[in-house]
Amino acid sequence: MSAGRILVIDDEAGLRHTLSLLLREEGYEVATAEDGEVGLRTALADPPGLILCDVRMPRLDGLQFLDRYQEAEGRALVIVMSAYGSLDTAVEAMRRGAYDYVSKPFNADEILLTLRKAEEREHLRREVDRLRKQVGEVQGFEAVVGRSQVMREALDLAGRVAPYPSTVLITGESGTGKEAIARAIHRASPRAEGAFVAVNCGAIPENLLESELFGHEKGAFTGADRTREGLFAEANGGTLFLDEIGELPHPLQVKLLRVLQERRVRRVGASAEVPVDVRVLAATARDLVEEVQEGRFRDDLFYRVNVVQIHLPPLRARPEDVPLLASHFLARHAARFGIPARDLPAGVVAVLASYPWPGNVRELENVVERALVLSGGDVREEHLPAHVRSGTHPFNILPDDADLSVKRRLPALERELIAKALQRTQGNRTRAADLLELSVRALSYKVQDYGLD
């Protein structure tokens, strides 16, 4: 299938001739067909990259062509052409699988722009397929999506450490995909048939955490009405993922260190230890080196869990991964909801790629899911949240590595507040000064200093 080859299906000989001249001048290879029957045979015999198909035709109309082309598993993007009076039919064609439509009569720029958009979509789809195949070459890592150099390096390191029982520490901001990497390591390891057990060390109350991890005997404490196996025992023969290990209270750090050294656990209230065969993967959004220096994390436990460290950079540091991730999430949630979703338009992809994603991959997935639900499958820019379209986060969340100097950040904050006040008051400095609780004179000086006049 050649993306540079276009099939034009229309019963008007004059239009076929005009389009052929236009498209050939633009460097396309063009084939033509006078009706849907001939067009279907041509499309299946020598698959084009794109198809321009009229809606109203004898023998086999555009809708019937679409149905039969899809039944034959044709993969070219189909753009339908319709006269103004058949616009409803064109919309119906899109519901049945067409990529887009153009209304007759159309000018050269309009048809070429539509074709360029379709080509971008097809290029993105092929790139997604290629990268998924490339990532999938490392068994177990099919679900981890990323094309950036830093992600390829992280995946390569994860793939190399997966076959061995070494403890791995996965670092990165919240939402960067640390658990996804941990699950991939488990799937690619000899323990893949065993359980993968995940626990967020910061989500369980401190008084329950020891029992949760190691289990307890019946009657060990109030409410312990039966003996309970802990998560280490549950993960026996498999992998235990300790998310946010930096949140572990100090007494639990001591006990975890002993388990990692001895490979034995003692349930709360028990008199004897039992052996466990568990590979431990840990993750943290904290700087554990700093935590060790501040005395909040034991250095001996740090060295025990930090045998191999895999760092996942924030999404803002790898914007080239955004289009691929967005397409991945769109396909996943469309399948989950039973929605026949179309690929993301280039404009939507551009907006997503320019947003800084303080919530990282998790935030991107939520935005894509929301847009899919609101759009019914045809996501447009208006289906994205306003703060994503404008490139600013509604909670003004700072990244973990942000400059926290009050002295340096206050001027920027002051400038932003003044700019918003002037915007809200349409430039009225008296009203803006009231909002800012400044004198008009003070506001005028600041406007001049910040270059806002």
Q: Can you characterise this structure?
A:
The strands form 4 sheets. Strands 2-1-3-4-5 form a 5-stranded parallel beta sheet, with helices on both faces. It is 48% helix and 14% strand. By secondary structure, the protein is α/β, with parallel strands linked by helices. Helix 5 crosses helix 13 (322-337) and helix 18 (429-436) crosses helix 19. Mean pLDDT is 84; it is low at 132-139. It folds into 4 domains: 2-131, Rossmann fold; 149-311, Rossmann fold; 315-390, Helicase, Ruva Protein, domain 3 (Orthogonal Bundle); 406-449, Arc Repressor Mutant, subunit A, CATH 1.10.10.
What is the element layout, followed by pairings?
Blueprint: E1 2-9, H1 13-25, E2 29-33, H2 36-45, E3 48-54, H3 62-71, E4 77-83, H4 87-95, E5 100-104, H5 108-136, H6 149-161, E6 168-171, H7 178-187, E7 196-200, H8 206-214, E8 215-216, E9 228-229, H9 231-234, E10 239-243, H10 250-262, E11 264-265, E12 274-275, E13 279-284, H11 288-293, H12 299-305, E14 308-311, H13 322-337, H14 346-354, H15 360-375, H16 386-390, H17 406-424, H18 429-436, H19 440-449
